[in-house]
């Protein structure tokens, strides 16, 4: 079990302004006892890395509705890598099934699609944090 | 016979009716209207704007399209026109919507993905190549950089020999809802309102067939609002534009005729129909009683409708076809002027040609097979429908009272205040979360998502893919356009825009038209104004 006070940074990376989903997810996670730091719209990989460092976050949640995930997902992971941060990245939004293996291979911890329930969201985020804190990346 | 009935009859007799039998499938002849006054075409227009309703003219089946390069979208436009579509509707990609060029670092991964990429007039020329701009009406969904895109459309028309006065269409240009819901803004609210007002003035003077603002509740609803919030926020934004235009010295009877609206048609059938009917009534009353319009045409709430994208499910996507059909029917029974029906695959990706065609066919089916178009406002007078309409109006008036108070007697100031203090985004997020919790708790059933989940197929339908080549192609194209243009002409025209922006008494439209003709890019024009107006950054609240 991760500590109840797991901290997650949520952000909209890039220009996409669809923020209904991420705000709902923010409240779901908050209601489940997590500490949510929502950075808002038009974030860059740099601004997200800075927030993760400053807040000592356990996970990052990105929301994408404009088909930018194949470019922006890997860009986020590269930026974390460069900063020496080992924090799981979860992507939510509209991601076609065919793209999921590509994101998996790129190192995205999990993908949450439309219609995911609160339970699914919370369980997925917790599992990603557990996996990472158990040193998942080295043993996977 | 009452006077109102005689008046309705006179108006009806004047209308040119479609050449089809107005009878049931079994041959029973039908009266055009049933029930009591006020009749369709009569103030406050609850029952519709025109005496003969869809008997004289069906709604415009306007399918929103845009992806990849301008040539790709041009081909889709031609396909939709061939398939019987009657109006064009343009979706732009994210960088274009945000005033950024395809070579901006912000554009990475977004070029041509969720709409067509337009950087310069050259792209706009490709987008409308071989389409007679004098013979179609075009809708452009763009807000922050709307003035630049409208200028490009004017320039394309003039190059093809179509005068700006003959261009018909609508530009969304509803900047207020951007701060409330869609979040595609560039400048802060007040300078943005100045640009909108300049566009209202410009079109009133020079483009009589153009709708300079499409006041849009669609995005407010998609962001999670209730039906009443959608209606209230949208009409309040409309009043804000009216107040701004009146303050700028414009005649409400002139510009009021060319305002149009854009609503969502969601899944709760009667709530939506009540919303559409209430929209017309409330707008007419306020335009007449509060703002003093005297020309009835300036009191008419004309609206476009789109079915609810957010209602589409990724699970068992084919059943979205049925979802969309009921939403199309609600829009028709609510008396919409034009309609876009969503494609069943939109919760997965941008629509394929086939999915877009099925969506258009759904509208054609409702229009030509169901018979609901034979009688004007066929549900008018039904006790529940009238109650729902009244209930919508009651809830909306409550919200207006709040905004009026926030703005100290001005809806415009109330809307600014509600943007500044987070009222709109907070109310919308609360409603979205309430709905989500109800679905989660199983109190609300979404077929295929939290009930009736069996039979979901393993494979996804064929999806439209935009490849990376688009981004590469578009960047090269932009580079080539920049290489071929006169930099001196670009610099001079951009400087003129900055000068115009500094003086609130000067209209920004003419210098923007000059700049697009010199092939200045969208981002260069945005920056020329940003240097005066500044940028807007939303406070992130959950």
Write a concise keyword list for the protein shown above.
heterodimer, A: 140 residues, alpha/beta, Rossmann fold, 5-stranded parallel β-sheet, 6 helices, 5 strands, 16% strand, B: 542 residues, TIM Barrel, 9-stranded parallel β-sheet, 20 helices, 9 strands, 49% helix
Describe what you observe in this structure.
The complex is a heterodimer of chains A (140) and B (542). By secondary structure, chain A is α/β, with parallel strands linked by helices. Chain A has a domain at 1-97: Rossmann fold (3-Layer(aba) Sandwich). Chain A is built from 6 helices and 5 strands. Chain A has helices at residues 20-31, 45-55, 69-82, 100-106, 118-133, 136-139; strands at 7-11, 35-38, 59-64, 89-93, 110-112. The model of chain A has no long low-confidence stretch (mean pLDDT 90). Chain B is of the alpha/beta class and 542 residues long. Chain B has helices spanning 3-14, 70-82, 94-97, 121-127, 146-159, 176-182, 189-206, 218-222, 227-247, 252-255, 269-290, 320-333, 353-368, 383-406, 411-420, 423-440, 468-484, 487-502, 509-517, 522-533; strands at 60-65, 87-91, 137-141, 168-171, 210-211, 213-216, 259-265, 303-307, 338-340. Chain A binds chain B through residues 14-17, 19-20, 23-24, 26-28, 30, 36, 38-42, 65-68, 70-72, 75, 94, 96-98, 113-115, 117-119, and chain B through 94-95, 97-98, 100, 106-110, 113-114, 182-184, 222-224, 310, 313-315, 347-350, 428-429, 432-433, 436-437, 439-440, 446, 449-450, 460, 463, 466, 537-542.
List the total number of helices of chain A: 6
Overall morphology of chain A: globular
Number of helices of chain B: 20
Spans where pLDDT lies below 50 across 5 or more residues of chain B: none
Largest sheet of chain A: 5 strands, parallel
Ordered list of secondary-structure elements with their pairings:
The complex is a heterodimer of chains A (140) and B (542).
Chain A: E1 7-11, H1 20-31, E2 35-38, H2 45-55, E3 59-64, H3 69-82, E4 89-93, H4 100-106, E5 110-112, H5 118-133, H6 136-139
Parallel strand pairs in A: 1-2, 1-3, 3-4, 4-5
Helix pairs in contact in A: 2-3
Chain B: H1 3-14, E1 60-65, H2 70-82, E2 87-91, H3 94-97, H4 121-127, E3 137-141, H5 146-159, E4 168-171, H6 176-182, H7 189-206, E5 210-211, E6 213-216, H8 218-222, H9 227-247, H10 252-255, E7 259-265, H11 269-290, E8 303-307, H12 320-333, E9 338-340, H13 353-368, H14 383-406, H15 411-420, H16 423-440, H17 468-484, H18 487-502, H19 509-517, H20 522-533
Parallel strand pairs in B: 1-2, 1-9, 2-3, 3-4, 4-5, 6-7, 7-8, 8-9
């Amino acid at each position: 079990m991760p500590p109840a006070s797991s901290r997650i940074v949520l952000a909209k990376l890039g220009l996409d302004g669809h923020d209904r989903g991420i705000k709902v997810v923010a409240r779901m996670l908050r209601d489940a006892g997590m500490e949510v730091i929502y950075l808002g719209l038009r974030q860059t990989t740099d601004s997200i890395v800075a927030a993760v460092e400053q807040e000592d976050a356990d996970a990052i949640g990105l929301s994408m509705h404009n088909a930018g995930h194949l470019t922006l997902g890997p860009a986020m992971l590269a930026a974390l890598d460069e900063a020496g941060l080992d924090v799981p990245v979860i992507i939510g939004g509209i991601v076609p099934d065919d793209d999921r293996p590509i994101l998996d291979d790129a190192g995205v911890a999990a993908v949450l699609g439309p219609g995911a329930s609160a339970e699914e969201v919370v369980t997925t985020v917790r599992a990603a944090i557990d996996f990472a804190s158990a040193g998942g990346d080295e043993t996977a | 016979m009452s006077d109102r009935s005689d008046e309705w009859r006179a108006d009806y007799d004047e209308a040119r009716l479609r050449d089809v039998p107005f009878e049931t499938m079994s041959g029973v002849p039908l009266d055009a209207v049933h029930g009591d006054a006020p009749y369709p075409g009569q103030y406050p227009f609850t029952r519709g704007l025109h005496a003969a309703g869809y008997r004289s003219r069906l709604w415009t089946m306007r399918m929103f399209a845009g992806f990849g390069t301008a040539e790709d979208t041009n081909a889709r436009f031609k396909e939709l026109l061939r398939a019987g579509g009657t109006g064009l509707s343009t979706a732009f990609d994210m960088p274009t919507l945000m005033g950024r060029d395809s070579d901006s670092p912000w554009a990475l991964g977004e070029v041509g993905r969720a709409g067509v990429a337009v950087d310069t007039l050259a792209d706009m020329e490709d987008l409308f190549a071989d389409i007679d701009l004098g013979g179609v009406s075009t809708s452009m969904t763009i807000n922050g950089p709307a003035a630049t895109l409208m200028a490009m459309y004017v320039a394309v028309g003039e190059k093809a020999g179509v005068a700006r006065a003959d261009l018909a269409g609508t530009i969304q240009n509803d900047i207020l809802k951007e701060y409330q819901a869609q979040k595609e803004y560039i400048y802060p609210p007040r300078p943005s309102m100045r640009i909108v007002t300049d566009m209202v003035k410009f079109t009133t003077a020079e483009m009589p067939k153009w709708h300079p603002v499409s006041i849009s509740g669609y995005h407010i609803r998609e962001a999670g609002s209730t039906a009443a919030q959608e209606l209230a926020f949208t009409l309040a934004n409309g009043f804000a534009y009216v107040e701004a235009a009146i303050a700028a010295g414009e005649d409400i009877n002139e510009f009021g005729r060319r305002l149009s609206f854009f609503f969502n048609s969601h899944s709760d059938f009667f709530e939506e129909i009540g919303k559409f009917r209430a929209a017309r009534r409330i707008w007419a009353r306020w335009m007449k009683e509060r703002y003093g319009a005297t020309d009835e045409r300036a009191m008419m709430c004309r609206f476009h409708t789109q079915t609810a994208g957010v209602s589409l499910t990724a699970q068992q996507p084919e059943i979205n076809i049925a979802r969309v059909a009921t939403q199309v029917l609600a829009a028709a029974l609510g008396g919409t002027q034009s309609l876009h029906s969503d494609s069943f695959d939109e919760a997965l990706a941008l629509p394929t040609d086939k999915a877009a065609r099925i969506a258009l066919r759904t509208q054609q089916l409702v229009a030509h097979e169901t018979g609901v178009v034979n009688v004007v406002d066929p549900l008018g007078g039904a006790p529940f429908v009238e109650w729902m309409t009244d209930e919508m109006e009651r809830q909306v008036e409550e919200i207006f009272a709040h905004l009026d108070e926030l703005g100290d007697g001005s809806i415009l100031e109330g809307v600014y205040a509600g943007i500044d203090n987070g009222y709109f985004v907070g109310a919308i997020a609360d409603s979205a979360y309430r709905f989500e919790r109800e679905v989660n708790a199983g109190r609300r059933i979404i077929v295929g998502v939290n009930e009736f989940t069996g039979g979901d197929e393993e494979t996804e339908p064929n999806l439209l893919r935009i490849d990376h080549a688009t981004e590469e192609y578009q960047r090269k194209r932009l580079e080539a356009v920049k290489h071929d243009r006169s930099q001196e002409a670009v610099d001079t025209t951009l400087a003129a825009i900055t000068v115009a922006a500094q003086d609130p008494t000067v209209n920004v439209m003419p210098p923007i038209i000059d700049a697009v003709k010199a092939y200045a890019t969208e981002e260069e024009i945005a920056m020329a104004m940003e240097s005066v107006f500044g940028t807007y950054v939303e406070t992130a609240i959950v």
